[in-house]
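Ticket #4471: structure output looks truncated?

Reporter: J.K.
Steps to reproduce: submitted the chain below (78 residues) through the standard prediction queue, then opened the result file.
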Amino acid sequence: MRTETVRVDTHSAMEMFAFSQWEDRSPPASVLHFLSVLLLARLRTYKIFQYSPRAWMNRQQQYAYFIRCNDRDTHYDD
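Returned output as attached by the reporter:
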């Protein structure tokens, strides 16, 4: 006889992070002119989010509130 344990998700939730200000510190697209010179075909970009201390605290509070409202599974993992 074979026993198998299978995970079953009984609840899923999602909510957007609410914020009122943001600043994009990315370099302008014009600095990428070297791609045409070098004939490169692949470009990888990465998103890095940095928060001010006040914004980080706000995010943590929103996260904690969301978890309190949506913690319905016995084996919750984030």
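Triage note (M.O.): checked the attachment and the full token line is present. The radius of gyration is 21 Å.
Status: closed, working as intended.
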